[in-house]
Design goal:
Blueprint: H1 3-8, E1 11-17, H2 23-37, E2 44-50, H3 61-69, H4 85-90, E3 93-96, H5 99-104, E4 110-112, H6 113-117, H7 129-140, H8 143-158
Parallel strand pairs: 1-2, 1-3, 3-4
Helix pairs in contact: 2-7, 3-7
Length: about 160
């Protein structure tokens, strides 16, 4: 396979939580930022969704404020998306904030933060910006392990 073809194959990663207004969109934008820093953003399509998302719900203001404090670019106009069966088929790696989220993705390609860092990511909904910042740091702490997992999947996909 030529190098040109290898470059065109991307890994589809989706972060999943309950409402897609706090944890999963933060993880999406934090992981994109991480991948940009690693100069790997071109290898991935990264999105997020919620298992019980309300159509059109917006990201919590504290989540946006936390991302701004951290200097992370994000789409201020993004709307919550409900996780669908098609998403479980289209994504190579699904990362649930908890084991329950991963289980409900109903896929062998679903993992949770318990798999990455040994603990779930607690829901910061309705809490202070400081709690959202702590949540962001917890999610970031799993990115090296996540990238390692993704690289294994990407190698398989490109083989």
């Amino acid at each position: 396979m030529s190098d040109e073809k290898v470059k065109k194959i991307k890994l589809n990663v989706i972060f999943v939580c309950t409402g897609n207004t706090c944890r999963s969109p933060m993880a999406e934008f934090l992981f994109k930022d991480y991948l940009r820093e690693k100069k790997r953003i071109g290898d991935f399509n990264v999105t997020s969704a919620g298992l019980e998302a309300g159509k059109g719900d917006v990201m919590m203001p504290q989540a946006g404020e936390a991302l701004e404090i951290l200097g992370v670019k994000y789409n201020k106009e993004r709307k919550a998306r409900i996780f669908t069966v098609q998403m479980s088929l289209d994504n190579d790696v699904m990362i649930g904030m908890t084991q329950e989220h991963a289980y409900r993705c109903d896929s062998v390609n679903a993992y949770s933060y318990v798999d990455l860092i040994g603990a779930p990511v607690a829901d910061p909904f309705g809490r202070s910006v400081e709690v959202y910042l702590a949540t962001a740091e917890q999610m970031r702490s799993g990115f090296d392990a996540l990238l390692e997992l993704c690289d294994e999947k990407l190698s398989e996909k490109r083989a």
